Amino acid sequence: MLEKEQVQHIAGLARLKLTPEEIKKFQKDLSLILDYVNTLKRADISEQEIDLSQIIEKLPDIERVGERRQDKALSFYNRDKLLDLMSQRKKDYLKTKPIIKK
Amino acid sequence: MNLTELTINQIKQGLKNKEFSAVDLCRNYLDKINQFNEEVAAFLTVDEKQAILEAEKIDKIISKKEKLPILAGVPCAIKDNIMVEGMSCTAGSKILEKYIAPYDATVIKKIKAQGGIILGKTNLDEFAMGSSNENSAFGPVKNPYDLERVPGGSSGGSAAALPAGFSVFSLGSDTGGSVREPAAFCGVVGLRPTYGAVSRYGLVAFASSLDQIGPITKTVEDCQTVFDVIKGEDPLDSTSQKIVEKDSIIPKKLKIGLPKEYFVKGMDYEVEKAIEKVIEKYRAIGAEIKEVSLPHSEYALACYYIISSAEASSNLARFDGIKYPPEDNPEDNLKEDLISFYLRKKGKGFGSEVKRRIMLGTYVLSSGYYQAYYLQAQKTRELLKKDFKKVFEDVDIILSPTVPFLPFKIGEKIDNPVQMYLVDIYTVSASLAGLPAVSLPAERGGNLPVGFQITGKPFKENEILSAGKLYFS
Q1: Whole-angstrom Cα distance, residue B459 to residue B227?
Q2: Distance, CA of B41 to CA of B157 (rounded, Å)
Q3: Is residue B131 annotated as part of the catalytic site, yes or no?
Q4: Does ipTM come in above 0.90?
Q5: DSSP bridge partners of B256
Q6: Whether residue B79 lies in the annotated active site
Q7: Rounded to the nearest 5 degrees, what angle is found at the Cα of B85, between the Cα atoms of B43 and B327?
Q8: How close is the nearest chain B Cα to the Cα of A22, in Å?
Protein backbone atom coordinates (compact mmCIF):
# COMPACT_ATOMS: atom_id res chain seq x y z
CA MET A 1 0.00 0.00 0.00
CA LEU A 2 1.24 3.49 -0.85
CA GLU A 3 2.07 5.74 2.07
CA LYS A 4 -0.04 8.82 2.69
CA GLU A 5 3.05 10.97 2.13
CA GLN A 6 3.70 9.36 -1.27
CA VAL A 7 0.15 10.15 -2.42
CA GLN A 8 0.49 13.72 -1.16
CA HIS A 9 3.80 14.09 -2.98
CA ILE A 10 2.34 12.89 -6.30
CA ALA A 11 -0.72 15.10 -5.85
CA GLY A 12 1.63 18.05 -5.38
CA LEU A 13 3.51 17.21 -8.57
CA ALA A 14 0.19 16.91 -10.41
CA ARG A 15 -1.07 20.18 -8.88
CA LEU A 16 -4.12 18.51 -7.38
CA LYS A 17 -5.49 19.48 -4.01
CA LEU A 18 -6.95 16.34 -2.46
CA THR A 19 -9.24 16.01 0.52
CA PRO A 20 -8.16 13.65 3.36
CA GLU A 21 -10.80 11.14 2.17
CA GLU A 22 -9.43 11.30 -1.37
CA ILE A 23 -5.90 10.68 -0.13
CA LYS A 24 -7.09 7.60 1.71
CA LYS A 25 -8.99 6.36 -1.33
CA PHE A 26 -6.04 6.94 -3.68
CA GLN A 27 -3.69 5.09 -1.32
CA LYS A 28 -5.90 2.06 -1.84
CA ASP A 29 -6.82 2.58 -5.52
CA LEU A 30 -3.31 3.36 -6.76
CA SER A 31 -1.87 0.40 -4.86
CA LEU A 32 -4.47 -1.85 -6.49
CA ILE A 33 -3.66 -0.51 -9.95
CA LEU A 34 0.12 -0.66 -9.41
CA ASP A 35 -0.19 -4.27 -8.25
CA TYR A 36 -1.96 -5.03 -11.49
CA VAL A 37 0.44 -3.16 -13.80
CA ASN A 38 3.38 -4.82 -12.07
CA THR A 39 2.58 -7.89 -14.22
CA LEU A 40 4.44 -5.94 -16.87
CA LYS A 41 7.70 -6.57 -15.05
CA ARG A 42 7.57 -10.16 -16.27
CA ALA A 43 7.77 -9.09 -19.93
CA ASP A 44 11.21 -9.79 -21.35
CA ILE A 45 12.34 -6.53 -22.89
CA SER A 46 16.07 -7.22 -22.73
CA GLU A 47 16.35 -7.41 -26.54
CA GLN A 48 14.07 -4.48 -27.20
CA GLU A 49 15.73 -1.23 -28.20
CA ILE A 50 13.59 1.85 -28.30
CA ASP A 51 13.81 5.40 -29.54
CA LEU A 52 11.16 7.28 -27.60
CA SER A 53 11.20 10.19 -30.05
CA GLN A 54 10.05 7.75 -32.73
CA ILE A 55 7.08 6.29 -30.88
CA ILE A 56 4.46 8.41 -32.58
CA GLU A 57 6.37 8.69 -35.85
CA LYS A 58 6.47 4.91 -36.23
CA LEU A 59 2.90 4.27 -35.29
CA PRO A 60 1.67 2.45 -37.34
CA ASP A 61 4.60 0.69 -38.94
CA ILE A 62 4.62 2.33 -42.38
CA GLU A 63 6.58 4.93 -44.26
CA ARG A 64 5.27 8.44 -43.80
CA VAL A 65 3.92 9.80 -47.08
CA GLY A 66 2.68 13.24 -46.12
CA GLU A 67 4.88 16.29 -45.92
CA ARG A 68 5.34 18.31 -42.79
CA ARG A 69 3.76 21.72 -42.51
CA GLN A 70 6.30 24.53 -42.54
CA ASP A 71 7.20 25.99 -39.18
CA LYS A 72 5.50 29.30 -39.90
CA ALA A 73 3.31 31.34 -37.59
CA LEU A 74 -0.25 31.84 -38.85
CA SER A 75 -2.90 34.02 -37.28
CA PHE A 76 -6.05 32.35 -35.98
CA TYR A 77 -9.27 33.54 -37.62
CA ASN A 78 -11.24 33.65 -34.41
CA ARG A 79 -8.65 35.44 -32.27
CA ASP A 80 -11.04 37.41 -30.08
CA LYS A 81 -13.23 34.42 -29.25
CA LEU A 82 -10.12 32.55 -28.23
CA LEU A 83 -8.90 35.32 -25.94
CA ASP A 84 -12.38 35.64 -24.44
CA LEU A 85 -11.97 32.15 -23.07
CA MET A 86 -9.50 33.48 -20.52
CA SER A 87 -11.01 33.99 -17.12
CA GLN A 88 -9.83 37.59 -16.94
CA ARG A 89 -8.75 39.77 -19.80
CA LYS A 90 -7.84 43.42 -20.20
CA LYS A 91 -7.63 44.27 -23.93
CA ASP A 92 -4.85 41.98 -25.14
CA TYR A 93 -3.51 41.31 -21.67
CA LEU A 94 -4.49 38.12 -19.89
CA LYS A 95 -4.73 38.29 -16.13
CA THR A 96 -3.52 35.55 -13.81
CA LYS A 97 -2.70 35.29 -10.14
CA PRO A 98 0.65 36.71 -8.97
CA ILE A 99 3.62 34.37 -9.24
CA ILE A 100 6.10 36.55 -7.42
CA LYS A 101 5.64 37.03 -3.71
CA LYS A 102 6.32 40.50 -2.42
CA MET B 1 -41.96 4.70 -42.71
CA ASN B 2 -40.16 5.24 -39.44
CA LEU B 3 -37.77 8.08 -40.21
CA THR B 4 -35.62 7.48 -37.15
CA GLU B 5 -34.61 4.02 -38.33
CA LEU B 6 -33.15 4.98 -41.70
CA THR B 7 -29.58 4.47 -42.89
CA ILE B 8 -27.57 7.08 -44.79
CA ASN B 9 -28.33 5.50 -48.15
CA GLN B 10 -32.06 5.23 -47.42
CA ILE B 11 -32.08 8.92 -46.48
CA LYS B 12 -30.38 9.81 -49.72
CA GLN B 13 -33.01 7.92 -51.74
CA GLY B 14 -35.87 9.28 -49.67
CA LEU B 15 -34.77 12.89 -50.10
CA LYS B 16 -34.22 12.40 -53.83
CA ASN B 17 -37.63 10.81 -54.32
CA LYS B 18 -39.25 13.50 -52.14
CA GLU B 19 -40.64 10.91 -49.71
CA PHE B 20 -39.77 13.36 -46.95
CA SER B 21 -37.91 16.66 -46.62
CA ALA B 22 -34.67 17.24 -44.74
CA VAL B 23 -36.61 19.39 -42.26
CA ASP B 24 -39.19 16.60 -41.68
CA LEU B 25 -36.38 14.19 -41.07
CA CYS B 26 -34.55 16.51 -38.69
CA ARG B 27 -37.78 17.28 -36.75
CA ASN B 28 -38.43 13.55 -36.30
CA TYR B 29 -35.05 13.05 -34.66
CA LEU B 30 -35.40 16.17 -32.51
CA ASP B 31 -38.85 15.01 -31.36
CA LYS B 32 -37.41 11.66 -30.35
CA ILE B 33 -34.63 13.39 -28.43
CA ASN B 34 -37.09 15.71 -26.69
CA GLN B 35 -39.24 12.76 -25.74
CA PHE B 36 -36.64 10.29 -24.49
CA ASN B 37 -33.32 12.00 -23.83
CA GLU B 38 -34.22 12.59 -20.21
CA GLU B 39 -34.31 8.82 -19.73
CA VAL B 40 -31.30 7.83 -21.85
CA ALA B 41 -29.13 10.93 -21.18
CA ALA B 42 -27.27 10.48 -24.46
CA PHE B 43 -27.13 14.19 -25.33
CA LEU B 44 -25.58 16.95 -23.23
CA THR B 45 -26.41 19.73 -25.72
CA VAL B 46 -28.95 19.90 -28.53
CA ASP B 47 -29.03 22.82 -30.96
CA GLU B 48 -32.50 22.57 -32.53
CA LYS B 49 -32.47 25.97 -34.22
CA GLN B 50 -29.19 25.48 -36.01
CA ALA B 51 -30.10 21.92 -37.02
CA ILE B 52 -33.39 23.05 -38.61
CA LEU B 53 -31.61 25.95 -40.31
CA GLU B 54 -29.10 23.57 -41.89
CA ALA B 55 -31.87 21.16 -42.91
CA GLU B 56 -33.71 24.03 -44.64
CA LYS B 57 -30.55 24.69 -46.67
CA ILE B 58 -30.55 21.07 -47.84
CA ASP B 59 -34.22 21.32 -48.84
CA LYS B 60 -33.34 24.36 -50.93
CA ILE B 61 -30.62 22.41 -52.73
CA ILE B 62 -33.17 19.67 -53.40
CA SER B 63 -35.77 22.10 -54.74
CA LYS B 64 -33.17 23.57 -57.09
CA LYS B 65 -32.38 20.03 -58.25
CA GLU B 66 -28.66 20.56 -57.53
CA LYS B 67 -26.35 17.68 -56.75
CA LEU B 68 -26.61 16.52 -53.14
CA PRO B 69 -23.45 16.11 -51.07
CA ILE B 70 -22.73 12.71 -49.49
CA LEU B 71 -24.26 13.36 -46.06
CA ALA B 72 -26.99 15.76 -47.23
CA GLY B 73 -29.62 16.14 -44.52
CA VAL B 74 -28.27 13.27 -42.42
CA PRO B 75 -28.77 14.05 -38.70
CA CYS B 76 -25.74 13.13 -36.59
CA ALA B 77 -24.44 13.36 -33.04
CA ILE B 78 -20.95 14.38 -31.94
CA LYS B 79 -19.12 13.26 -28.84
CA ASP B 80 -18.69 16.21 -26.52
CA ASN B 81 -14.88 16.14 -26.71
CA ILE B 82 -14.89 17.16 -30.39
CA MET B 83 -15.16 20.88 -31.15
CA VAL B 84 -18.17 22.25 -33.01
CA GLU B 85 -17.82 26.01 -33.36
CA GLY B 86 -20.24 27.94 -31.15
CA MET B 87 -21.39 24.87 -29.21
CA SER B 88 -20.23 23.95 -25.75
CA CYS B 89 -17.55 21.30 -25.47
CA THR B 90 -17.42 19.95 -21.93
CA ALA B 91 -15.49 16.68 -22.44
CA GLY B 92 -17.85 15.45 -19.72
CA SER B 93 -16.00 17.55 -17.13
CA LYS B 94 -16.99 20.29 -14.69
CA ILE B 95 -13.72 22.00 -15.51
CA LEU B 96 -14.97 22.70 -19.08
CA GLU B 97 -18.61 23.32 -18.20
CA LYS B 98 -18.53 26.90 -19.51
CA TYR B 99 -16.28 26.26 -22.48
CA ILE B 100 -17.66 27.19 -25.91
CA ALA B 101 -15.62 25.84 -28.82
CA PRO B 102 -14.12 28.70 -30.84
CA TYR B 103 -13.53 26.57 -33.96
CA ASP B 104 -14.60 23.42 -35.79
CA ALA B 105 -12.56 20.24 -35.55
CA THR B 106 -11.33 19.07 -38.96
CA VAL B 107 -13.78 16.13 -38.92
CA ILE B 108 -16.64 18.58 -38.24
CA LYS B 109 -15.59 20.82 -41.13
CA LYS B 110 -15.70 17.76 -43.36
CA ILE B 111 -19.11 16.62 -42.13
CA LYS B 112 -20.55 20.11 -42.55
CA ALA B 113 -19.06 20.37 -46.04
CA GLN B 114 -20.90 17.17 -46.97
CA GLY B 115 -24.25 18.46 -45.71
CA GLY B 116 -24.41 16.53 -42.43
CA ILE B 117 -26.79 18.02 -39.82
CA ILE B 118 -25.25 18.22 -36.36
CA LEU B 119 -28.02 17.76 -33.80
CA GLY B 120 -25.89 18.14 -30.71
CA LYS B 121 -23.14 16.89 -28.44
CA THR B 122 -23.19 13.55 -26.69
CA ASN B 123 -22.41 12.48 -23.15
CA LEU B 124 -19.14 10.70 -22.34
CA ASP B 125 -16.90 9.61 -19.53
CA GLU B 126 -14.97 12.62 -18.28
CA PHE B 127 -12.11 13.33 -20.72
CA ALA B 128 -12.99 10.02 -22.39
CA MET B 129 -11.63 8.06 -19.42
CA GLY B 130 -13.92 5.15 -18.74
CA SER B 131 -15.64 2.06 -20.07
CA SER B 132 -19.16 2.59 -18.75
CA ASN B 133 -20.01 6.29 -19.02
CA GLU B 134 -20.46 6.42 -15.26
CA ASN B 135 -17.55 8.88 -15.06
CA SER B 136 -19.42 11.72 -16.75
CA ALA B 137 -19.68 14.78 -14.51
CA PHE B 138 -23.21 15.20 -15.91
CA GLY B 139 -24.59 11.78 -15.00
CA PRO B 140 -24.42 8.37 -16.67
CA VAL B 141 -25.89 7.44 -20.05
CA LYS B 142 -28.31 4.49 -19.99
CA ASN B 143 -28.24 1.59 -22.39
CA PRO B 144 -31.41 1.80 -24.56
CA TYR B 145 -31.64 -2.03 -24.51
CA ASP B 146 -31.94 -2.00 -20.72
CA LEU B 147 -32.02 1.30 -18.90
CA GLU B 148 -30.47 -0.22 -15.79
CA ARG B 149 -27.33 -1.12 -17.69
CA VAL B 150 -24.36 0.87 -18.96
CA PRO B 151 -24.05 1.74 -22.67
CA GLY B 152 -20.28 1.28 -22.53
CA GLY B 153 -17.79 4.08 -22.70
CA SER B 154 -16.34 6.39 -23.15
CA SER B 155 -18.39 7.28 -26.27
CA GLY B 156 -21.53 6.02 -24.51
CA GLY B 157 -23.83 8.85 -25.55
CA SER B 158 -22.73 8.58 -29.18
CA ALA B 159 -23.44 4.84 -29.24
CA ALA B 160 -26.70 4.94 -27.24
CA ALA B 161 -28.06 7.66 -29.55
CA LEU B 162 -28.43 5.15 -32.39
CA PRO B 163 -30.66 2.42 -30.91
CA ALA B 164 -32.57 5.22 -29.12
CA GLY B 165 -33.45 6.68 -32.53
CA PHE B 166 -31.80 10.02 -31.73
CA SER B 167 -29.32 10.07 -34.59
CA VAL B 168 -28.37 8.34 -37.86
CA PHE B 169 -24.68 8.18 -37.03
CA SER B 170 -22.32 9.54 -34.42
CA LEU B 171 -18.69 10.41 -34.01
CA GLY B 172 -16.79 9.06 -31.04
CA SER B 173 -13.16 8.92 -30.03
CA ASP B 174 -11.23 5.75 -29.27
CA THR B 175 -8.11 5.71 -27.11
CA GLY B 176 -8.24 2.18 -25.67
CA GLY B 177 -11.62 1.04 -27.01
CA SER B 178 -13.94 4.01 -26.47
CA VAL B 179 -15.65 3.66 -29.86
CA ARG B 180 -15.65 -0.14 -30.15
CA GLU B 181 -16.77 -1.01 -26.64
CA PRO B 182 -19.92 1.18 -26.53
CA ALA B 183 -20.70 0.09 -30.10
CA ALA B 184 -20.62 -3.52 -28.89
CA PHE B 185 -22.81 -2.74 -25.85
CA CYS B 186 -25.37 -0.83 -27.94
CA GLY B 187 -25.56 -3.28 -30.86
CA VAL B 188 -24.09 -0.95 -33.49
CA VAL B 189 -20.97 -0.63 -35.67
CA GLY B 190 -17.95 1.27 -34.32
CA LEU B 191 -14.68 1.83 -36.15
CA ARG B 192 -11.35 2.79 -34.65
CA PRO B 193 -9.32 3.91 -37.69
CA THR B 194 -5.56 3.38 -38.07
CA TYR B 195 -3.47 5.83 -36.06
CA GLY B 196 -3.04 8.74 -38.47
CA ALA B 197 -6.01 7.93 -40.75
CA VAL B 198 -8.24 10.68 -39.32
CA SER B 199 -7.20 14.16 -38.15
CA ARG B 200 -7.49 14.82 -34.42
CA TYR B 201 -7.41 18.60 -34.80
CA GLY B 202 -10.19 19.82 -32.52
CA LEU B 203 -10.36 16.70 -30.38
CA VAL B 204 -9.73 17.26 -26.66
CA ALA B 205 -6.46 15.33 -26.18
CA PHE B 206 -6.39 12.43 -23.72
CA ALA B 207 -3.44 10.21 -24.77
CA SER B 208 -1.89 11.51 -27.95
CA SER B 209 -0.10 8.35 -29.11
CA LEU B 210 -3.44 6.50 -28.92
CA ASP B 211 -6.38 8.88 -29.57
CA GLN B 212 -8.36 8.44 -32.79
CA ILE B 213 -11.75 9.76 -33.92
CA GLY B 214 -14.06 7.15 -35.41
CA PRO B 215 -17.62 6.70 -36.71
CA ILE B 216 -20.41 4.86 -34.89
CA THR B 217 -23.14 3.74 -37.29
CA LYS B 218 -26.07 1.36 -37.73
CA THR B 219 -24.57 -0.52 -40.68
CA VAL B 220 -21.15 -1.34 -42.13
CA GLU B 221 -22.07 0.57 -45.31
CA ASP B 222 -22.77 3.72 -43.26
CA CYS B 223 -19.49 3.21 -41.43
CA GLN B 224 -17.60 3.16 -44.73
CA THR B 225 -19.44 6.30 -45.91
CA VAL B 226 -18.67 8.31 -42.77
CA PHE B 227 -15.08 7.08 -42.60
CA ASP B 228 -14.53 8.13 -46.24
CA VAL B 229 -15.82 11.61 -45.37
CA ILE B 230 -13.67 12.18 -42.27
CA LYS B 231 -10.41 10.44 -43.24
CA GLY B 232 -7.32 11.99 -44.75
CA GLU B 233 -4.23 14.04 -44.15
CA ASP B 234 -4.57 17.38 -42.36
CA PRO B 235 -1.78 19.96 -42.04
CA LEU B 236 -3.21 20.81 -38.60
CA ASP B 237 -2.49 17.32 -37.22
CA SER B 238 1.10 16.32 -37.93
CA THR B 239 0.35 12.66 -37.15
CA SER B 240 -2.29 12.41 -39.87
CA GLN B 241 -1.29 10.59 -43.02
CA LYS B 242 -2.21 10.61 -46.65
CA ILE B 243 -3.78 7.27 -47.43
CA VAL B 244 -2.29 6.08 -50.71
CA GLU B 245 -4.11 2.78 -50.77
CA LYS B 246 -6.62 2.30 -53.57
CA ASP B 247 -9.87 0.46 -52.98
CA SER B 248 -8.53 -2.72 -51.55
CA ILE B 249 -10.59 -5.82 -51.93
CA ILE B 250 -10.36 -8.70 -49.54
CA PRO B 251 -9.06 -11.93 -51.02
CA LYS B 252 -11.58 -14.52 -52.23
CA LYS B 253 -10.43 -16.95 -49.60
CA LEU B 254 -10.34 -14.77 -46.53
CA LYS B 255 -7.85 -15.91 -43.89
CA ILE B 256 -9.05 -15.17 -40.38
CA GLY B 257 -6.83 -15.46 -37.32
CA LEU B 258 -8.19 -16.27 -33.87
CA PRO B 259 -5.65 -15.29 -31.19
CA LYS B 260 -5.49 -18.19 -28.77
CA GLU B 261 -4.67 -15.79 -25.92
CA TYR B 262 -8.12 -14.16 -26.36
CA PHE B 263 -10.16 -17.33 -26.18
CA VAL B 264 -9.63 -18.26 -22.57
CA LYS B 265 -11.76 -18.54 -19.44
CA GLY B 266 -13.48 -15.52 -17.98
CA MET B 267 -15.71 -14.58 -20.88
CA ASP B 268 -19.48 -14.35 -20.32
CA TYR B 269 -21.23 -17.46 -21.62
CA GLU B 270 -23.50 -15.48 -24.00
CA VAL B 271 -20.49 -13.69 -25.48
CA GLU B 272 -18.66 -16.96 -26.06
CA LYS B 273 -21.72 -18.50 -27.74
CA ALA B 274 -22.28 -15.46 -29.96
CA ILE B 275 -18.64 -15.42 -31.11
CA GLU B 276 -18.73 -19.14 -31.90
CA LYS B 277 -21.70 -18.45 -34.17
CA VAL B 278 -19.81 -15.64 -35.91
CA ILE B 279 -16.86 -17.95 -36.57
CA GLU B 280 -19.25 -20.62 -37.90
CA LYS B 281 -20.79 -18.14 -40.28
CA TYR B 282 -17.40 -17.10 -41.68
CA ARG B 283 -16.45 -20.74 -42.05
CA ALA B 284 -19.71 -21.42 -43.91
CA ILE B 285 -19.01 -18.65 -46.43
CA GLY B 286 -15.63 -20.13 -47.24
CA ALA B 287 -13.19 -18.30 -44.99
CA GLU B 288 -10.15 -20.11 -43.65
CA ILE B 289 -10.05 -19.98 -39.85
CA LYS B 290 -6.65 -20.31 -38.17
CA GLU B 291 -5.48 -20.17 -34.61
CA VAL B 292 -2.76 -17.55 -34.19
CA SER B 293 -0.73 -16.28 -31.26
CA LEU B 294 -0.14 -12.79 -29.89
CA PRO B 295 2.23 -13.89 -27.12
CA HIS B 296 2.50 -10.52 -25.39
CA SER B 297 -1.27 -10.00 -25.05
CA GLU B 298 -1.21 -10.58 -21.32
CA TYR B 299 0.77 -7.34 -20.91
CA ALA B 300 -1.39 -5.18 -23.17
CA LEU B 301 -3.76 -3.83 -20.53
CA ALA B 302 -1.02 -2.90 -18.04
CA CYS B 303 0.97 -1.35 -20.87
CA TYR B 304 -2.07 0.63 -21.97
CA TYR B 305 -2.91 2.00 -18.53
CA ILE B 306 0.67 3.14 -17.94
CA ILE B 307 1.13 4.84 -21.30
CA SER B 308 -2.34 6.38 -21.54
CA SER B 309 -2.23 7.71 -17.98
CA ALA B 310 1.27 9.12 -18.45
CA GLU B 311 0.15 10.97 -21.56
CA ALA B 312 -3.06 12.10 -19.88
CA SER B 313 -1.19 13.59 -16.94
CA SER B 314 0.76 15.69 -19.41
CA ASN B 315 -2.19 16.60 -21.70
CA LEU B 316 -4.50 17.56 -18.85
CA ALA B 317 -1.94 19.90 -17.29
CA ARG B 318 -3.37 22.61 -19.56
CA PHE B 319 -6.63 22.73 -17.61
CA ASP B 320 -5.34 25.15 -15.04
CA GLY B 321 -8.50 27.10 -14.28
CA ILE B 322 -7.24 30.13 -16.19
CA LYS B 323 -7.26 29.35 -19.90
CA TYR B 324 -10.54 27.47 -20.08
CA PRO B 325 -12.40 29.10 -17.25
CA PRO B 326 -14.58 26.88 -15.09
CA GLU B 327 -17.51 28.51 -13.35
CA ASP B 328 -16.67 31.63 -11.36
CA ASN B 329 -16.34 31.04 -7.71
CA PRO B 330 -16.37 33.72 -5.01
CA GLU B 331 -13.10 32.20 -3.79
CA ASP B 332 -11.48 33.22 -7.07
CA ASN B 333 -11.22 36.75 -5.76
CA LEU B 334 -9.25 35.61 -2.75
CA LYS B 335 -5.70 36.75 -2.43
CA GLU B 336 -3.82 33.57 -3.17
CA ASP B 337 -0.77 32.75 -5.25
CA LEU B 338 -0.84 30.95 -8.57
CA ILE B 339 0.05 27.50 -7.23
CA SER B 340 -2.71 27.59 -4.61
CA PHE B 341 -5.11 28.70 -7.34
CA TYR B 342 -4.10 25.74 -9.58
CA LEU B 343 -4.37 23.27 -6.71
CA ARG B 344 -7.85 24.45 -5.79
CA LYS B 345 -9.21 24.71 -9.34
CA LYS B 346 -7.88 21.35 -10.52
CA GLY B 347 -8.78 19.63 -7.26
CA LYS B 348 -12.39 20.78 -7.62
CA GLY B 349 -12.71 20.70 -11.42
CA PHE B 350 -11.67 17.10 -12.12
CA GLY B 351 -13.72 14.04 -11.18
CA SER B 352 -12.29 11.07 -9.32
CA GLU B 353 -11.40 8.81 -12.29
CA VAL B 354 -9.58 11.67 -14.02
CA LYS B 355 -7.68 12.45 -10.83
CA ARG B 356 -6.82 8.77 -10.43
CA ARG B 357 -5.34 8.66 -13.94
CA ILE B 358 -3.45 11.93 -13.53
CA MET B 359 -2.03 10.57 -10.26
CA LEU B 360 -1.08 7.24 -11.87
CA GLY B 361 0.45 9.03 -14.86
CA THR B 362 2.42 11.40 -12.66
CA TYR B 363 3.64 8.47 -10.57
CA VAL B 364 4.87 6.34 -13.49
CA LEU B 365 6.70 9.33 -14.98
CA SER B 366 8.23 10.46 -11.70
CA SER B 367 11.90 10.11 -10.98
CA GLY B 368 12.77 6.67 -9.68
CA TYR B 369 9.76 4.98 -11.32
CA TYR B 370 10.10 6.10 -14.93
CA GLN B 371 12.33 3.16 -15.98
CA ALA B 372 10.35 0.51 -14.18
CA TYR B 373 6.98 1.62 -15.52
CA TYR B 374 6.95 4.03 -18.43
CA LEU B 375 10.02 2.79 -20.29
CA GLN B 376 9.11 -0.82 -19.61
CA ALA B 377 5.63 -0.16 -21.03
CA GLN B 378 6.93 1.53 -24.16
CA LYS B 379 9.30 -1.36 -24.85
CA THR B 380 6.54 -3.87 -24.29
CA ARG B 381 4.40 -1.89 -26.70
CA GLU B 382 7.04 -2.52 -29.38
CA LEU B 383 6.82 -6.26 -28.64
CA LEU B 384 3.04 -6.11 -29.05
CA LYS B 385 3.43 -4.37 -32.40
CA LYS B 386 5.83 -7.10 -33.55
CA ASP B 387 3.31 -9.78 -32.49
CA PHE B 388 0.70 -8.30 -34.81
CA LYS B 389 3.15 -7.84 -37.66
CA LYS B 390 4.06 -11.48 -37.51
CA VAL B 391 0.46 -12.68 -37.37
CA PHE B 392 -0.47 -10.52 -40.36
CA GLU B 393 2.13 -12.33 -42.48
CA ASP B 394 -0.18 -15.31 -42.13
CA VAL B 395 -3.75 -14.03 -42.00
CA ASP B 396 -5.76 -11.13 -43.48
CA ILE B 397 -7.75 -10.17 -40.41
CA ILE B 398 -7.95 -11.03 -36.71
CA LEU B 399 -11.30 -11.87 -35.13
CA SER B 400 -12.17 -11.68 -31.43
CA PRO B 401 -14.93 -10.60 -29.10
CA THR B 402 -14.98 -6.82 -28.58
CA VAL B 403 -15.67 -7.09 -24.85
CA PRO B 404 -15.58 -10.28 -22.74
CA PHE B 405 -18.78 -9.23 -20.92
CA LEU B 406 -22.38 -8.34 -21.64
CA PRO B 407 -23.42 -4.77 -20.80
CA PHE B 408 -23.27 -4.69 -17.01
CA LYS B 409 -25.50 -2.97 -14.46
CA ILE B 410 -24.87 0.65 -13.57
CA GLY B 411 -22.78 0.67 -10.38
CA GLU B 412 -21.61 -2.93 -10.74
CA LYS B 413 -17.93 -2.25 -11.39
CA ILE B 414 -17.52 1.39 -10.40
CA ASP B 415 -15.90 0.71 -7.02
CA ASN B 416 -13.05 -1.39 -8.34
CA PRO B 417 -10.89 0.40 -10.91
CA VAL B 418 -9.04 -2.77 -11.96
CA GLN B 419 -12.33 -4.65 -12.61
CA MET B 420 -13.45 -1.74 -14.74
CA TYR B 421 -10.16 -1.62 -16.68
CA LEU B 422 -10.53 -5.33 -17.52
CA VAL B 423 -13.49 -4.41 -19.76
CA ASP B 424 -10.90 -3.08 -22.24
CA ILE B 425 -8.85 -6.27 -22.41
CA TYR B 426 -9.59 -7.03 -26.10
CA THR B 427 -9.58 -3.49 -27.39
CA VAL B 428 -6.34 -1.96 -26.07
CA SER B 429 -3.98 -4.09 -28.17
CA ALA B 430 -5.07 -2.65 -31.52
CA SER B 431 -4.83 0.82 -29.96
CA LEU B 432 -1.26 0.25 -28.79
CA ALA B 433 -0.24 -1.12 -32.18
CA GLY B 434 -2.00 1.73 -34.03
CA LEU B 435 -4.12 -0.71 -36.03
CA PRO B 436 -7.65 -0.29 -37.42
CA ALA B 437 -10.34 -2.31 -35.68
CA VAL B 438 -14.11 -2.40 -35.99
CA SER B 439 -16.76 -3.73 -33.62
CA LEU B 440 -19.79 -5.29 -35.31
CA PRO B 441 -23.05 -6.52 -33.80
CA ALA B 442 -23.17 -10.32 -33.56
CA GLU B 443 -26.37 -12.29 -33.64
CA ARG B 444 -27.39 -12.45 -30.01
CA GLY B 445 -28.95 -15.13 -27.89
CA GLY B 446 -30.62 -12.99 -25.22
CA ASN B 447 -31.82 -9.41 -25.07
CA LEU B 448 -28.44 -7.76 -24.71
CA PRO B 449 -26.16 -6.97 -27.64
CA VAL B 450 -22.80 -8.68 -28.19
CA GLY B 451 -20.07 -7.29 -30.42
CA PHE B 452 -17.26 -8.97 -32.33
CA GLN B 453 -14.10 -7.21 -33.35
CA ILE B 454 -12.17 -7.38 -36.62
CA THR B 455 -8.63 -6.00 -36.53
CA GLY B 456 -6.70 -5.34 -39.73
CA LYS B 457 -3.36 -4.24 -41.13
CA PRO B 458 -2.43 -0.53 -41.02
CA PHE B 459 -4.64 1.61 -43.29
CA LYS B 460 -6.67 -1.40 -44.41
CA GLU B 461 -9.97 -0.04 -43.09
CA ASN B 462 -11.57 -1.02 -46.39
CA GLU B 463 -10.54 -4.61 -45.84
CA ILE B 464 -11.95 -4.93 -42.34
CA LEU B 465 -15.16 -3.21 -43.42
CA SER B 466 -15.45 -5.50 -46.47
CA ALA B 467 -14.95 -8.48 -44.19
CA GLY B 468 -17.74 -7.05 -42.04
CA LYS B 469 -20.05 -6.69 -45.05
CA LEU B 470 -19.35 -10.30 -45.91
CA TYR B 471 -20.71 -11.34 -42.51
CA PHE B 472 -23.97 -9.46 -43.01
CA SER B 473 -24.39 -10.49 -46.67
Answers
A1: 12
A2: 7
A3: no
A4: yes
A5: B289, B397
A6: yes
A7: 70
A8: 8
Phi, psi angles (nearest 5°) of residue B84: -120, 120
> Is there a contact between A15 and B346 if contact means CB atoms under 8 Å apart?
yes
What pLDDT sits at residue B118? 98
* Four-residue CA torsion sign, B386, B387, B393, B396: negative
* Contact between B459 and A62 using a beta-carbon 8 Å cutoff: yes
Neighboring chain B residues of A94 at a CB cutoff of 8 Å: 322
Phi (first) and psi of residue B251, to 5 degrees: -60, 155
The model carries a pTM of 0.96
* Helix (H), strand (E) at residue B306: helix B300-315
Residue B274: CB atoms within 10 Å: 22
Beta bridge partners of B257: B290, B398
Instruction: Report the pLDDT value the prediction gives residue B95, as an integer from 0 to 100.
Output: 94
Phi–psi pair at B398, nearest 5 degrees: -115, 135
* Neighbouring-strand partners of residue B191: B438
DSSP secondary structure, B344-400, as one string = HHHHHHS-HHHHHHHHHHHHHHSTTTTIIIIIHHHHHHHHHHHHHHHHTTT-SEEEE
H or E segment at B452? strand B451-455
**Positions of E strands within chain A:** 89-90, 93-94
CB-nearest to A36 from B103, B302, B361 is B302
Whether B424 and B295 have beta carbons less than 8 Å apart is answered as no
What's the pLDDT score for residue A55? 77
pLDDT in tens, B74-109: 999 999 999 999 999 999 999 999 899 999 999 999
CA distance B10 to B401: 30
Amino acid at B105: A
Answer yes or no: do B383 and A48 touch at CB < 8 A.
yes
Quick one: which of B419, B215, B304, B333 has its CA closest to A97? Answer: B333
Nearest to B377 among A7, A40, A77 (CB): A40
Chain A contact set for B381 (CB, 8 A): 55
Q: With the C-alpha atoms ordered B280, B282, B288, B291, is the resulting torsion angle positive or negative?
A: negative
- Closest to B462 (Cα-Cα) out of B194, B233, B177, B168: B194
Q: Write the residue in A14, A33, A62 that is nearest to B458 by C-beta.
A: A62
- The four Cα atoms B159, B146, B271, B383 give a dihedral, to 10 degrees, of 40
Phi, psi of A15 (to 5 degrees): 60, 45
Residues of A in contact with B195 (CB under 8 A): 59-60
> Is B473 annotated as catalytic?
no
Residue B244: list chain A partners with CB under 8 A: 65
**Is a pLDDT exceeding 90 seen at residue B210?**
yes
| CA separation for the pair A44, B129 (Å, rounded) | 29
Q: What angle do CA B214, B218, B221 make, to 5 degrees?
A: 75
**Amino acid in the structure at residue B372:** A
Residue B461: band (very low, low, confident or very high) from pLDDT cuts 50, 70, 90: very high
